[in-house]
Amino acid sequence: VSLQELMQSKFRANRTAITEFILLGLVETPGLRPVVFVVFFFAYLVTVGGNLSILAAIFIEPKLHTPMYFFLGNLSVLDVGCITVTVPSMLAHLLSNKHTIPYGACLIQLFFFHLLVGVDCFLLTAMAYDRFLAICQPLTYSTRMSQTVQRILVAVSWALAFTNALTHTVAIATLNFCGPNVINHFYCDLPQLFQLSCSSTQLNELLLFAVGFIMAGTPLALIITSYAHVAAAVLRIRSTEGRKKAFSTCGSHLTVVAIFYGSGIFNYMRLGSAKLSDKDKGVGVFNTVINPMLNPIIYSLRNPDVQGALWRVLKGMPSLA
């Protein structure tokens, strides 16, 4: 057997060596698993219940049939999807001794996670644009933010996020995994898979940085620009009550944007670090559990219309309007 044949045989073996990954999860101590299961099962129920309640409130309350709440309803759907992609599988692993995930299932989880997070990113931009038009261009708001425009913005958000998620999934599928298959996390994500690859990930990391800069940096720049104009317009309002009302409609959105981008930058802009630590698990919990759970609270906390609609949903009462 020639040396070339041996090398080709070894290469083929390497490409098919890893058929599944082992997810270490949040805790490795068996005694803590029941506690973690209860906490995250409760968090999952609260998140899904909270976001579905927001959806129901928007659906039944005519006062909330506005562009801002149309986008918020879509955001609630994304939050339910994001936590469902990661947490149920983690809960299943906590209940069983089997902590493996097939290679194909890992890539599917990666794709849907990045798809939903990507749409989230663009929807937050659409919401900032909506606030800009409502406050800075109130006379043309109804025509510039018509139902057709709203649907186009949502459709474009899904299309761009789909392209982004597919790009990263195809790129990771070209890597070879022939060595360790233990992922120190509770779901499959790019930084953890990069570390396990036995082929060079330099191009993949460059792709993540470049595409991330465009797909996240551009929306962030648009959000900042929108709110710079909003702030200037609000400061020109003479009445204190008027200023307070204008800022209160933007405060919730800005809080969500800060949390979303803060955790995202921490997670993906540290790819050069030699070893991913347990801090990354904490950021993962923030991205997939805490963020979706906080959004309904943030958006309803200082909004009497949403609070009233939610109260009627919980009591099973019809809308007052």
UniProtKB/TrEMBL annotation:
Task: Quote one Gene Ontology molecular function term.
Answer: G protein-coupled receptor activity
Cellular component GO terms, alphabetical: plasma membrane
Membrane topology category: Multi-pass membrane protein
Give the InterPro entries listed for this entry.
Answer: GPCR_Rhodpsn (IPR000276), GPCR_Rhodpsn_7TM (IPR017452), Olfact_rcpt (IPR000725)
Q: What is its main location?
A: membrane
SUPFAM superfamilies membership: Family A G protein-coupled receptor-like
Domain named G-protein coupled receptors family 1 profile: which ranges? 50-299
Q: Which UniProt keywords apply?
A: Cell membrane, G-protein coupled receptor, Glycoprotein, Membrane, Olfaction, Receptor, Sensory transduction, Transducer, Transmembrane, Transmembrane helix
Q: Where in the cell is it found?
A: Cell membrane
Main role? Answer: Putative odorant or sperm cell receptor.
Q: Which family does it belong to?
A: Belongs to the G-protein coupled receptor 1 family.
Q: What is this protein called?
A: Olfactory receptor
Q: Which gene encodes it?
A: LOC122907642
